[in-house]
Amino acid sequence: MRPYIVALFNQKGGISKTTTSTNLAVCLAAFGKTVLVVDLDSQGDSTKSLGIDSKIREGVFDLFINNVPVESVIRSTPYDGVWVLPSTYSLAGIEVKLSELQNSQRTLNAILANANLDCDYVVIDCPPALGILPINALAAAHAVIIPVTATPYANDGLLRTLPSIKYVQEGLNKSLLLQGVLFTIHDRNKTARRISDLIRSRLGGTVYRSQIPRDNMVIEAATAGLPVCIYAPRSAAAQAHLDFTEEFLNRHASIVAKAGETIAPHPAHDVALDRLLRWRGEIASAAGPATNAAGLRQQKSQLDRLLYGDRPLIERWHLGIIHFFIDNRLSLAMFLLLVLAGVIALLGASLEGLRRLSDIVGL
Ligand SMILES: Nc1ncnc2c1ncn2[C@@H]1O[C@H](COP(=O)(O)OP(=O)(O)OP(=O)(O)O)[C@@H](O)[C@H]1O
Ligand SMILES: [Mg+2]
């Protein structure tokens, strides 16, 4: 059976397309499904979040431009049932290359159709903005999910995204279905509620009941290079991702039921949670307890290399000392206290010295 292909798309950036893609993938796998994630973003965030080294040589670019077969690009992940077609840095230049090719809007469709994929779902993580890659995703997909964050700019994103979907539905892919709109990074304040009420009232049942709350665990998980459902399976965001995945599966089941088909039933929420907890345990024991700290350290040294790598040694030492104190404010406070104590002692000693001197001289 051909996999069900779903694209995560919103022309707006930073609204959790990648976070939703990777967590949807691991949650689908936790519910016993097999999933291929296609990372169409040159930032490669979903590739990294699924544990694939960002320095790999071949990726989606090579599928599109060099006709490399899917089998040599596909990577397995630490999670049973999840594979990735990874992104590499070269993907950033693909727009120009593809514009030179004919029929380039359907390239991904042809790649996936010819690949003989043995999985239940394909989840495509789209880059922000409307370019040739998101058009390829929408042309290849059965369904699209729009993640939306209920901020005053949410409507802008929707107003630009819905017409693009319509454009594809009218030409490139007439059977493309808008499976749903998902509220992400959701705040519990009046503005967010007003905006989400407005969107719900206009789009009705298209909006998923589940909404993903703003949760610092997602950011901690990203720092550790893990999906939040693995990093903290019991966190509010992870629980919401599990709920959303169940809703997604139920929607898919009712879509195929209209065509007289069925999908295999999925196990209960608790079974999926147990599987996430098991993966969490395996990852923690493989990486040691300091996954998060190690992730931060690695990011810090990458940034330092990028910013200061070509400066003279003396300047790098100087900056290193400054960064040490910025990163360790407590040490800076201790250092300043020590300096202060030293100055006071020095002053005390000099005053005492002066007093003795004046005694000797008889002043
Ligand atoms: N539920 C959440 N709570 C808190 N932070 C979140 C949540 N979901 C995502 N984030 C954070 O928001 C930022 C943007 O998320 P993400 O990268 O998934 O968005 P995106 O739409 O894929 O962005 P881009 O358009 O750049 O590809 C990230 O720093 C991520 O860790
Ligand atoms: Mg992204």
UniProtKB/TrEMBL annotation:
CDD domains: ParAB_family (cd02042). Pfam families: AAA_31 (PF13614). Keywords: Membrane, Transmembrane, Transmembrane helix. Residues 5-176 form the AAA domain. It comes from the Bacteria. The chain crosses the membrane at residues 330-349. Involved in chromosome partition. Localize to both poles of the predivisional cell following completion of DNA replication. PANTHER family: P-LOOP CONTAINING NUCLEOSIDE TRIPHOSPHATE HYDROLASE, PARA FAMILY PROTEIN CT_582. This is Chromosome partitioning protein ParA. It comes from Magnetospirillum molischianum DSM 120.
